[in-house]
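Q: Could you fold this chain for me?
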Amino acid sequence: MRRISRGRPSHATRVLAVIGLLVMSASPASAAGLTVITTYPAIEVDPGGTATFPITATSTTPQRVDLTVDGVPDGFTASFRGGGSIVSSVFTKPTGEEPPQLELQVKVPDGAAPGKSSLTVSARSGAEVVTVPLDVTVTDRSGGQVSLDARTPALRGSTEDAFSFSLTLSNDTAQEVEFSFAAEGPAGWTVDARPSGEAQAATAVVAAGGTATITVTANAPADAPAGRHLLLARATGGSLTAEAQLGVELTGSYAMRLTTPEGRLSTQATAGSASNFSVVVQNTGTAPLVGVSLSATPPTGWTVEFQPETVASIEPAQPATVAVVITPPSNAVAGDYVISLSAQAAGSGEEGSASADADIRTTVETSSLWGFIGLGVIALVIGGLLLVFRQYGRR
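A: Sure. Below is the predicted structure, expressed as structure tokens.
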């Protein structure tokens, strides 16, 4: 079944439904558990335009799903697209994982007459079939309309980047219209829409048959997860509304901190002996760190070992503890020394790379054995002197 809520038309694709719920197969208890959903099952489009239906297919277990569409009117063309290519099947992922990107594009011919056409998408996996009914309504252009189009509707970057979209607002009506603008995004995002070049303006007047350029800016919160995030830009003028969906692909931020469990960057060691302490590599970014290796720059003659030398991966906001074994040379002079430690995450160029450093102040003490030996030497010297005085002092 599906639930549809009416909306106002946008440019080439006016969304008539807000939420489309999946249409279940005839055997809902099937082990395959195939689910097919479309967010907007009814779309309004101009002659010569294209109606695009985003489709999500999931299942309890990965499986191949063959796709067909029935009821395509004469002159219309319909094709499934995924990964930048035309496809006829999709391999699903288990429910809860990110589903493959898939959409149905229905191209309407230039001379199409106004009216509604009903199509049916069928998804088949073995004996299980799921169907989703769709509606494409061709509009009458005689009354004029407004549209909002993005030159680049999808951008990619990290949470440290500021995203800027340039959109064209077209007024194809017979009169000038004053538009106000709004934009929204996921919770925590800062999204704003304004006429280009007008930092303080919140509205713009567009002449009949004219256009205006709109700039939408978006900033993600520092803790936003990596992945695809959707934004919505809207222009409203009286009873006219135009919308455009925008996308941001967050690669995640890569950062780390190197410290000790207690936060104290100091330790003690004995000359000629191995000493142990621990360091903590903290993932302070929003993307996993992969292949984190540690290295040290110790004083001359010192040895430093890490256990382990490489951490396979560290999830965001998670720590990894590494044991450090340091050995000063046996002839090291007592005092304070500095060992520079570094952690480096593997990456391709800037993608996935991060590093952190920490200086560990190390206080070296000489072995107590040498103290006892020194005391013994002193005792022998004193004893020898006493013996000499006793033997020669009587003469």
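A (continued): Residues 280 and 321 are 5 Å apart (CA to CA).
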